[in-house]
Amino acid sequence: MRCDQAGDERAPVRDDGRRGFLKCAAGIAGVAAATGLGKEASAAPADRPVGGFRNNAGLLPDRVPFHGRHQAGIVTPMQLFAGFVGFDVLVDNREGLTDLFQKLTTRARVLAAGVKPQDEQTASEQPTPDSLTITLGVGASLFDDRFGLSGHKPRHLKAMPAFPDDRLEPSRCHGDLSLQICAQHPDAIVHVLRDLARETEGLLRPRWRADAFLNPSRPSGSPRTFVGFKDGIVNPDTASAREMNRLLWVTPPCGEPDWALGGSYQVLRLIRFHIEKWDKVPVARQEKIFGRRKASGAPLGSRNETDPPRYRDDPHGRTIPLDAHIRLANPRTEKTDDSRFLRRSYNYDRGFDRSGRMDLGLVFCGYQQDPERQFATVQRRLRHEPLSKFITPLGGGYFFILPGVRDTDDWFGSQLLKKV
């Protein structure tokens, strides 16, 4: 069923949850080199600057409101740093799950308001909100027989399948929960994880983690990935309620459970770049693979990165090849318009692998109304594209981002667990 506007397998459970969580939260790999590169909140809209930081989308507010119909961290302008973690839930009954979600809500509300983390209580500096957002999602494995939720699973939620060009590693895939933490400084990610480790001791175990960051735009416009091309140039208009209700948010015509209204599907993909191989490719060939100029970001045959590619004037692909990444991903036809989704991706740097090759890549993050209609459809169009020789998806998962926490009496997943 199309939703128009109108509005896995789990890892074995062990008793070392806290030890594993703290080990997972101990540090951020590779981000140091990139440094530099609600009731009470309802009166401060997320898009209104309140002090804050300048980023690629303009002035990012110091404090991003926690309460609302939708969770923060989706249409919020991108912060400089992000952490993505997949968790397995260790509790074995609905009461324990309710307690877990309430604890996560309480701490997320406190931290997003700018309260100093416990591990910094003795520091003399004042606490800063750091434009922090904490975004919680649920995986398909949460809807098994542990909590009696199987009849309430979102319609399109399942374990992320392996696509033809993937090489997925089970230890870096899926999870009962997904946590996205975004902020303007990398230490904020660690503070949040340390805080949650203390508050949820014995309730959660980390399954995988990816720390990531934005590269500068250089010299302007969209930021660049480590393959040197600008990323995220074309996205749906987040200021358009019509567009968001058609492509992003779960609305009544979607046929989803009532508790899911206001939520969104999240697709995470951990994608490694084979950078040494890519660097040997002449720039002219790289540009044909992407369909854009490397320096300006403009579509081939155009001058500016925001210029729309002229596919109708190039039906045989003489300017932009028919198998160019941008042409396959978004053909810009009426038929393919419903497969667009919101991209919110970050770069990662994990140093060197055992063979001495650089471990660089992208934490691809996409938000949408239906991952089959949107992400999976795009992925099938990209099957065996020329770029696939230089990248390998290794992990990630499909998750459903819970509706927002409405006010101080509400909590993550309240409508789901109260209806069971």
Please explain how this structure is put together.
It is built from 9 helices and 11 strands. With 420 residues, it is of the alpha+beta class. It has one domain (10-420). The protein is globular, with a radius of gyration of 21 Å. This is Dyp-type peroxidase. Residues 304-317 have a biased composition (Basic and acidic residues). Belongs to the DyP-type peroxidase family. GO terms for molecular function: peroxidase activity.
List keywords for this structure.
single chain, 420 residues, alpha+beta, two-stranded antiparallel sheet, 9 helices, Dyp_peroxidase, iron, peroxidase activity, metal-binding, signal
- Mean pLDDT, nearest integer? 88
Shape annotation: globular
Radius of gyration: 21 Å
Element string (H = helix, E = strand): HEEEHEEHEHEHHHEEEHEH
Strand content: 15-25%
- Classify the oligomer: single chain
Terminal-residue CA separation: 25 Å
Q: How many discrete structural domains?
A: 1
The total count of helices amounts to 9
Helix content: 10-25%
By secondary-structure content and strand pairing, the structural class works out as alpha+beta
* Weakly predicted, low-confidence segments: 4-54
Largest sheet: 9 strands, antiparallel
Tally the beta strands. Answer: 11
